[in-house]
Design a protein that fits this description.
- Helix 2 packs across helix 3, helix 3 runs antiparallel to helix 9 and helix 9 packs across helix 10.
- The protein is built from 10 helices and 11 strands.
- The chain is globular, with a radius of gyration of 22 Å.
- The strands form 3 sheets. A 5-stranded antiparallel sheet has the order 6-5-4-3-7, with helices on one face. The protein has a 4-stranded antiparallel sheet with strand order 9-10-8-11, covered by helices on one side.
- By secondary structure, the protein is α+β, with helices and mostly antiparallel strands.
- The chain folds into 4 domains: 69 residues, Arc Repressor Mutant, subunit A (Orthogonal Bundle); 36 residues; 76 residues, SH3 type barrels; 78 residues, Alpha-Beta Plaits, CATH 3.30.70.
- The longest helix has 20 residues.
């Protein structure tokens, strides 16, 4: 049975907050904490990396290199996804009334928790001071201006960005910049990762607007950049519950689905995940791409033994 949307959203937000408090956690530790299987956690992480506007902060900037190398999960920034929601006075009042109604049926050990929750709800409904609303510093504004210049000229941007314990040279085809309460981000095509990536502008250093025209422009209508048709055996039917996909055909023993390419890296890892049950992939280059990534991962794992 497909998971209810509100349940999945609550779990993903809880996962973001927990990873924010426990950076570098192993996939197995996350699975144990949330009572899920290893594969379920891996799918959740891939969803967090691919979902954009459905989660607060638009992108969570997962450290994919650390994840691929050590199966540890860290986020350079939760970008507000772990921040408590801001409530209207009416919403806060309804929650407090509900808490008051629950208090008589709760044990004495929970009464203090109710009081603390009510206080937190009250604080969450207060108006934010203007001083807490993020505005760019002078250096951030200069970076934003450089990126806007590149967007206007449709050229790539080069910069250095923190990676593990050192700075790493990056190059992107910029698609858009967005402002959140915690700062500004730029999203675009990362030439090194060969996939869409989002970067915090305040962490970018030595920004250079190149004269190299973009090679991967943003989709103008917000539609996926491509579709991949995968034909699978019935053993992979669980993916229909885990991922919203369009079923093209279903014979009982085999079925075909169209997978939208919102994030090429996610599609590649999704294909690796279900590889034992895949009969056909169209276009076929996606199967070859997944095989290359799987071989690289196997070689890295073998060297570390």
């Amino acid at each position: 049975m497909p998971e209810r949307t509100e349940v999945a959203a609550a779990r993903l937000l809880s996962l973001v907050a927990w990873i924010g408090d426990h950076p570098g956690s192993l996939v197995n530790d996350i699975a144990e904490h949330f009572g899920r299987t290893r594969k379920q956690v891996q799918r959740d992480i891939e969803v967090l990396g691919s979902v954009r506007d459905s989660l607060p902060g638009a992108s969570l900037e997962i450290d994919w290199d650390l994840y691929a190398r050590e199966e540890r999960v860290a986020m350079h920034s939760t970008l507000g996804a772990d921040v408590p929601p801001r409530l209207t006075e009416e919403e806060a009042a309804l929650i407090i009334v509900g808490l008051q109604a629950l208090t008589p049926i709760l044990g004495p050990d929970l009464h203090d928790h109710v009081m603390h929750t009510a206080l937190a709800v009250t604080r969450g409904a207060q108006t934010f001071e203007e001083s807490l609303v993020y505005s760019p510093s002078g250096s951030d504004q200069a970076r934003i201006d450089d990126i806007l210049s590149a967007l206007s000229a449709q050229v790539a941007v080069r910069f250095t960005y923190p990676h593990d314990d050192h700075d790493r040279e990056r190059a992107i085809d910029p698609w858009n910049i967005k402002r959140f309460e915690t700062g500004w981000t730029v999203t675009g095509w990362d030439h090194d990762a060969a996939a869409e990536r989002t970067f915090r502008i305040d962490r970018m250093r030595d920004i250079r607007v190149s004269d190299q025209p973009v090679t991967h422009p943003a989709a103008a209508d917000g539609s996926p950049s491509a579709m991949v048709r995968m034909t699978c055996t019935s053993e992979a039917r669980w993916i229909l519950d885990a991922v919203p996909l369009s079923v093209v055909s279903d014979s009982g023993s085999e079925f075909s689905v169209d997978v939208p390419v919102w994030d090429e890296e996610w599609v590649t890892h999704f294909l690796i995940d279900i590889a034992p049950h895949v009969v056909q992939v169209v276009p076929s280059e996606w199967k070859e791409r997944a095989a290359r990534v799987a071989r690289r991962a196997r070689n890295v794992w073998a060297m570390g033994k």
